[in-house]
Structures are given as C-alpha cells and as structure tokens.
Amino acid sequence: MNLAKYKKLIIVVLVLVSVVLTYLFTSNSSNQPNGQNVISKVLKIEPTFLSELKDDEVVNILLIGKDIGKERRAKGQTGYNTDILILLSINPKEKRAILTSFPRDIWQNGGRINSILATQGMDSLLDAISKISGQKVTKYISIDFDGIRWLVDAFGGVPVEVQTSFTDSSFPNNYDTGTMTVTFNQGPEILTGERALTFARSRKGNNGEGSDLMRAKRQHLILKGMIKSVENDKSIFFPFDIKEFYKEVILHTETNVSLDDAIYLFSFYKNINDYNIKSLVLDDRYIYHPENAAPYGGAWVFVAKDYTFAALHLDLENFLKQGVDLDKPQK
C-alpha cells in the first residue's frame, strides 16, 4: 500500500474518533470543490490547546468496535466482545503516525483482549493495550454494531475494492442462533451498513480470508473507503455542518476524547502532507498460537513470541520517534 493510501486510511479512522478528528485529515484536493468548502468551514475553528494530550510526545487513541446491537439485545443478550481494536498513534513533532490492529484472541491481563472490556472494564482494556503496544493509552472511542451500521448508511454507503472473492458459510446470523452464508466478489462494491459490518466481522471465509489478520485488513479497507463518502451528496451530512455533524455522531459513540482534545488534534492538519503514516496488523512477527492451552484456561489464544511484546514495543518506538522502517526486522 503506498503512502497516499496510508494517509487516506488514517483520515478515515479519525471519523470514528470524533467529527473534528475526521476533518482534521480530510483531503483538500483542488479538483474537489466540495472538499474545499468543507475545509473552509473547519478552518474557522481556532485551536485552544486546552487538551491534556498536548504534553504527550506521542498521542494514542484506541478505537473499539463492540459486537452487540439491537438484534442481540432483543434476544436478551447483554454481554459483548470488542471485535475491533485499533490503536492510532501520532507523533506530531516528528510528523509520524501509525494504525496498529490487535487480533481479538491475544492473551493479556488474564483473558483474551476482546473480553476484557466487558469483564474487567475500560481501565483494564486500556492497560492491556498499553502493555502490548508499549504506548501510554488513555483515550478511546467505542462504537457498536448499530453505530457502525448508522455511520455507513448515514454516509450513503462506503465504497471498497474487495481484494479477494470469498464465501463464509458460518457467519453468525444475528436474528437467530444459527449461521448464514455470505459472499463477497473481487472488485468494487458500495457497502451498506449491514454489508460493511459483515465484511468487517467475517473470520471464517474461504480463499485465504478466514483469519483475524485478513479481517483486520478488510476493516482497513472500509475505513479507507469512508473518506470517499464524506462528500457523497446522498449523505445525511451533505452539505456539511460541523456542529450538527458532531451532535449526531456523538450520540452513536462512547468516548473520553473531549472537544478540546479534538481541537488540539485538528491543529496538526496544516502539516498533514508532511506526515509519514503507516499501518500495522499484528501477525506472526509478534504473536503465535501456543500448543499448550492449559495456562490460558484451555482457550485458543495468541501470545507474544518474546513473552513481553518487546519486539513490538521497539518497532513502534523506533518508527514513531526515529522513522525506522517497520518492514525491516529490528535487532
């Protein structure tokens, strides 16, 4: 994936953080007049620098997707897991940023990380991600099934380029206790909220798509596609009004990212073209599935290859602070 695509990816993830963050990184291409109008409105906001993030060398925000929605609640289900965990890390001084996706079955803080929020609370989840990444993580944005459907449909759908055709014959049917078959064909598709949710969640597809790693990569495709929907005239936000947009989005998310935090992050916008932006999904460079599951209560889990995630800590630190290439193994 080239630098331009990475920039689009980071742009779209910020939609889920807050409205102001969304437009912090919105493209201002001269051949997109509507986009220029959006930017003109956003630029009227002056940064106040009241954010507690302003003293952090690296700003970290955890993006959380919860696997619960109205169908599951209607069936009496109140428990949930966090199927999407993406850490956004930004070094504003060095102008570097990275998105890091964590497979849900990583074992940390006495459980799989996708169950920590429901069983131990937000503080424990933020602590777990801090230990795995080696970054100080205190801010989060959380969205559930209903919120994801709403966001995608509110934008009038999200365009993606499906990389590989696949069929998942064991996809959970949220309307009963059974399963259903879903298929995606290689090529372009405008995803509805329901299709986007399915595309992001499927983890048992054929043709090499049946893993958490591939699911995380598809989530990135959705986030990347959202940027194209920001100026869609079928969007309920068109023409854009930041105050109304903010009020709408905040109703569908849970976050401790304040407006002051968002305004501070917005101040990075003027230098966005200078940023070196990367995307990382934890894979077999960092984690493995242990044969002996006894220490983990018999659960199928991933653990750190080096026991402490020191290699990941080093890679993230070296990239964010020194610009070391993530694709080159560290010694």
Give a short overview.
Helices cover 37% and strands 21% of the residues. The protein has 331 residues and is an alpha+beta fold.
Can you characterise this structure?
The structure is a single chain. This protein has 331 residues and is an alpha+beta fold. It has helices spanning 3-17, 19-24, 33-42, 70-74, 113-120, 122-133, 145-154, 193-201, 212-229, 242-250, 259-266, 310-322, and strands spanning 59-66, 82-91, 96-101, 107-108, 111-112, 139-144, 158-162, 166-172, 179-184, 187-191, 254-255, 276-281, 287-288, 303-304. A 6-stranded mixed β-sheet has the order 11-6-1-2-3-12, sandwiched between helices. A two-stranded antiparallel sheet has the order 4-5. A two-stranded antiparallel ribbon has the order 7-10. The two termini are 25 Å apart.
- What is the strand arrangement across the widest sheet? 11-6-1-2-3-12
- CA-based shape: globular
**pLDDT under 50 segments (min length 5)?**
8-44
Tell me the number of helical segments per DSSP (H or I, 4 or more residues long).
12
| CATH-defined topology | Nucleotidyltransferase, domain 5
Sheet with the most strands, sense and barrel status: 6 strands, mixed
N-to-C SSE series?
A: HHHEHEEEEHHEHEEEEHHHEHEEEH
Whole-number total of structural domains: 1
Number of strands: 14
Question: How far is the first residue's CA from the last residue's CA?
Answer: 25 Å
Give me the Rg, rounded: 19 Å
Helical/strand content category: alpha+beta
* Percent in helix: 25-40%
Query: Would you identify the CATH architecture?
Result: 2-Layer Sandwich
Query: What is the CATH first-level class name?
Result: Alpha Beta
Beta content: 15-25%
Average of the residue pLDDT scores: 80
